[in-house]
Amino acid sequence: QVQVAESGGGLVQAGGSLTLSCAASGHIIGLRDMGWRWYRQAPGNQREVVAEITAGGHTNFSDSVKGRFSISRDEAKRTAHLLMSRLKPEDSAVYYCTVHFSFFAEDVGDYRPSARWGQGTQVTVSS
Question: Which has the closest alpha carbon to 91: 36, 11, 35?
């Protein structure tokens, strides 16, 4: 099984920077095509996607963070990082990392898509 864990959350002043990290661990047969997404959810709000890096290396960002956040990955280490700069109080939320991948399903003899979520890490931006 694959487990996902985030780290790097904390308290930062508005205008500051913070880097979140996400690590995938565990073994699964024929794991490939790993992509990563970062979501966030503030109290009373729906969970939203803020950034992703696809298996092919393409990146996408929500309008609210475009130009301020960047995302990177290390395929060999199975890690991804969300670099957040020029933070605003409205960026405060619990940030979740997901890893999307394909694995070889022996019962069907073919690859199947799957995803795993982390537990989330709190980011608080003070004004």
Answer: 11
The CB density around residue 120, as the number of other CB atoms within 10 Å, is: 17
| pLDDT tens for each residue of 12-46 | 999 999 999 999 998 877 788 999 999 999 999 99
Low-confidence ranges of the chain (pLDDT < 70): none
Which residues does residue 5 pair with via DSSP β-bridges, in sequence order?
Answer: 23
55 and 69 in contact (C-beta within 8 Å)?
Answer: no
> Shortest CA distance to 51 belongs to which of 32, 29, 73, 31?
73
The DSSP secondary structure of 56-101, one letter per residue, reads TS-EEE-TTTTTTEEEEEETTTTEEEEEE-S--GGG-EEEEEEEEE
Give the span between the Cα atoms of 23 and 75, in whole angstroms: 10
d(C-alpha 91, C-alpha 123), whole Å: 8
